[in-house]
Amino acid sequence: MTTAPISVVAEPRPAVRLAVREDEQCLVDMVKRVHEESALRSADGELLPLDPVRVKEAVQRAIIPNRNGHDLPAWIGVIGRHRELHGSVYLSMEQTWYSSQPIVAELWNYLLPEHRKSGNARALIEFAKDSARSINCTLVMGIMTSGREEAKARFYRRQLGNPVGTFFAWS
Questions:
Q1: In contact, 76 and 22? CB cutoff 8 Å
Q2: CA-CA distance, 94 to 75, in Å (whole number)?
């Protein structure tokens, strides 16, 4: 009995698109979820307070070109339709304190819990890598979480290679 050769077809990468103004409220709501999973705490052990004005300003910086006039550019890659986002990655051109060479810094990379374990996280990281590659900049991504840090670190290591350091927060 002969059998047909098994054909393995890779799952297509989920589509990541640039966020636009119609995504603003959904992104602001998503940042509230990002904040809930954050590990940064104040001296009294509570989550650092969420400032809605700063959140809105950050989101608008990325979706409204030249919002602040002098800022280096920022952009957000999203998965999902307007008002039905599954996840997002916020990227910003920044400069280190010691060089005028810009880098691409990730402020958050977040998927709603019901859209994890789906290829979405890999797609958002690939979007970030493609973004940095397209402007010939180094991409800097990290993990700030209150749970599953080791699993997330293994995933990031598989996608990005070995880490360049470690971040500590003391309060």
A1: no
A2: 12
Cα-Cα-Cα-Cα torsion 37, 38, 42, 43, nearest 10 degrees, comes to: 90
Exposure of 32 in the CB half-sphere (CA atoms within 13 A): 7
Q: Are 23 and 82 in contact (CB under 8 A)?
A: yes
Say how far apart CA 66 and CA 26 lie, in whole Å. Answer: 21
Predicted pLDDT at 152: 86
**Count helices and strands in the chain by DSSP H and E runs:** 4, 5
Instruction: Residue 30: count other Cβ atoms within 10 Å of its Cβ.
Output: 24
Q: Taking the model in full, what pTM does it have?
A: 0.87
Distance CA 56, CA 17 (A): 20
Percent of the chain predicted with pLDDT > 90: 56
